[in-house]
Amino acid sequence: MLFESFFPEIQPLMLRLLQASGNLRPIPLPILLRAFLGMFFSYYITEILVGRSLPAEM
């Protein structure tokens, strides 16, 4: 359910990153999406597990 709701929002950004020119090596869209979702979920889980015990400035 999360994938179905987030993917349409994230897809334009991912495609823009894939089309960028310069010194970037090509990254397949599924790998880029997996990395972004992993970062999102790790932040969410960290916030749930230790968010209240961290100082406010963190």
Question: Briefly, what is this?
Answer:
The chain is mostly helical.
Count of DSSP-assigned helices: 2
Beta-strand fraction estimate: under 5%
Radius of gyration: 15 Å
Tally of extended strands?
0
Largest sheet, in brief, is: none
Shape annotation: elongated
User: What is the mean predicted local confidence, pLDDT?
Assistant: 79
Helix content: 55-70%
First-residue to last-residue Cα separation: 30 Å
Low-confidence stretches: none
What is the H-and-E element order? HH
Class by alpha and beta content: mainly alpha
Q: What tags apply to this protein structure?
A:
elongated; mainly alpha; 2 helices; 58 residues; single chain
What does this structure look like?
The protein is mostly helical. Helix content is 69%, strand content 0%. It contains 2 helices and no strands.
What's the layout of helices and strands?
Blueprint: H1 2-19, H2 29-50
